[in-house]
Amino acid sequence: MASVNSDEWRAVCHKFTSAQNLTLVESRNDPDNEPFRSKYKARELLAEIYCSLKSFEVGEEESGGGRPPTEPPVDGQREDGFGEGVGGDSPAGLRAARLAAVEYYLGVNHVDTEELSAGQEHLMNCVKLLERCSVSSENVSLFIHVRNQLGILWAGRDETETSQGFLETAESNYQRYMKEDGSPPTDMTEYFTTEENLLTHQERTKRFELAYTHTMYYLAQVYKNLGETERAATYCHSTLQRQLQLNQFSPMEWALNAATLSQYYITKGLYMEGRHCLSAATVISGLAGEAPSEAAAQESEAESERREQLRQKRAEIARCWIKYCLNLLQDSKKLLEDSIGELDTDRQEEMKMARRREEEEEEKGRKSALLFGSEDTFDSIASLEEKVWTLLKPIKLSTCVHSFLQAKEYFEMDGHVTDHVEILQDHSALFRSLAFYEEDLERRCKMHKRRVDMLEPICNDLNAQYYLMIRRQMMFELAEIYNEMMDLKLTLANRQADSETLDNHTIKKFNHLCSASAKYFQMFLDSLCSPEGKIPEHLEEEVLRPALVARFRVARLYSRLISSSPSAQLENLDKSLEHYQYVVQYCEAHPEAAATVETELELSTEMVGLLPLKINRLKAKMAVNS
C-alpha cells in the first residue's frame, strides 16, 4: 500500500474529498434537467479510487507483502463479523475495509441516482469484503453504515423482514463493540484522509453514535410496519433522546415526532409519558423561532414557505395536546362515574389521593428512562409539565383552550374542511366531558348549548355530496346533544316545580329540544335513503347500529312530546309505534343485526306490545269526548 504521506496517496485522498463535496454540496445546485450531474461525477472519482486501491494491492502482492483481501475468509468467521479472522487493524484488514468503503459509497451513489439493483450489488460487495475482517475500532462504523443502507433499501421494496435482519445485525454490532471495546472508532472518511486531517476522538464518537441513532430510527419504522407498536415506540423514544444528546435534529421535525409519539402513549393510558413528549415538543419547537410576519412572508417566497411550515407544524402539535386533554378527561370520567354515569363525589376524593400516591410511585420508577433534553432545555420542559393537568388532578384548561385556538387558526374552514370539522368535534367532545364534572345542571346545559353553537352552522352548510360521512356524524351528535339538553331541562323543571304539573314555558322548551333531537336523527336516517327517498332494504355494517339506534331514539322522542291536543298526541304515538316496529321487523328480517342493538331491540319489542293498547285507550277517550 502506498505510504500515507506519498503523493499517490494524497491524490487518492484529494479525489475522495472531491467526491464527497460533489455528493453533499454541489449536488444541491444541479439543474432540473440534470438532477444527478454532480453524483455522476462523484461516481467517476470513486471508480478511480477503487482502481488505485487495487493497483496498490497488486504492487504489494508482487513485493511479497500481506495476504490479498480477496482470499476466502478464515475458518470460524462469524456471520455478525465477530470472532476469529483477519484483524481490522492489520494491513490486509485495512485494505479490505478501504475497498469495502469505496463499494459502500458507490452503492449509496447508485441508490441516490435511482439505480437500486446496482446499488444493492455494491452494498453487498461491501458486506462480503467486511466478512474477511473481525469487527474492530477501524471498521465497526462501516459495518453499521452498510447495514443501515441495506435496511433502507429493502424497506423501500416493502421487504420489511429482510430490512429488519440487516438493521438488527447493525444494532448487535454496535452493542457488542461498545461492550468489548467502546473506544471512539475510526470514521469511514478517515480511510481516505491524510494524517494531519484525522478526526478528534470527540468527533469520531459523535459520528459513530449518530450512525447508531439512524439504526434505531429505521428499526422504529420497521417495527411499526410489522405491527410491533410497543417496540416501535421504545425505539422512537430512544431515537429522539439521542438526537437531543448529539444535538443533531431539526427543531420542528423533532417536535412533531415527539408529539406524534405522545399519541401512542395516550392511547395506552400512559399519560406521564405522553405529557413529557408533548411538553418537550412545545419547548423544542420554540427553538425554530417565530414565524415570519405576514408582510415579510409576502415579500419573500422562502419566508412565505417557512411561515406556512411553522404554522402548520405548531397547529399539528396543538392537535396532539387536544387529544391529550380529551383522552385524559374521558379516562378520568370512567374512573369517577357511578352506576348511572354520574359523578361520584365521594369516590372522587378517595381516588384522587390513591391515584396521586400511585402516580408518584410510577413516576419515580419510570421517569428517569424517559427524560428528554439537555441542560439548556430540561428545566423548561419540566416547568411546562408541572403546569399541565394529569389524571384526577384539578382541571386546568389553559393549555387545552390555547391548543384549540392555535389549531383552529391554522386549520380554517376555507381550505381545511375535514381538519377544521374534526377540531370542532374534538372541542365539542371536550365540553361533553367537562359537563360530567359540572354539578350545576343549568351550567351543564349551557355547556351542551356551546356544542350546538359550534356544530349546527357547519353541519347545515356542508355540501352533502362531498361531505356525506362528516354530515352524518354531526347530525347524529347534534341529535344526541339536544336529547341530553331535553333530559336536563326536564330534571331541572321537576326539581324547581312545586307540583307535578309543568308550566307552559317549560313545556314549550322541552318540546323544542325534543323536536330538534328528532329532527337531526331523522336527517341522519334520510341521508341513508336513495336519491328517490327509498329506505334501504339492507343497512351497511358501518351504519347498521347508528341507523337502528336513531330509529329507537326517534320512537322514544315522539312518545315523550307533551301535547294538550289528543289528536296531536295520537299522531305522535302512531309515529313512535312506526319506528319501534321498524327496529323489530328489521332485526327479524336480518337476525345478525339483533346482536348490535340488544338493549334497543328488547325495549322496542316491549313497546310494540304496549303502545297499541295506549293508542286504543286514547282513541276510545277521544270517541267518548266527541
From TrEMBL:
Localization per Swiss-Prot or TrEMBL: Cytoplasm, Cytoskeleton
Please indicate if the UniProt record lists Iron-sulfur as a keyword: no
**InterPro entries per the record?**
KBP
- Which Pfam families does the UniProt record give? KBP_C
Q: Which GO terms of type biological process are on file?
A: central nervous system projection neuron axonogenesis; microtubule cytoskeleton organization; neuron projection maintenance
Keywords for the protein's UniProt record, in alphabetical order: Cytoplasm, Cytoskeleton
A GO cellular component annotated for this chain's UniProt record is: cytoskeleton
Give the top-rank taxon of the lineage listed in the UniProt record for this protein: Eukaryota
Q: Where is this region: Disordered?
A: 59-86
- Sequence similarity: Belongs to the KIF-binding protein family.
Family matches, as PANTHER family:
KIF-BINDING PROTEIN, KIF1-BINDING PROTEIN
**What protein name does the entry list?**
KIF-binding protein
- Look up and give the organism this protein is from: Gasterosteus aculeatus aculeatus
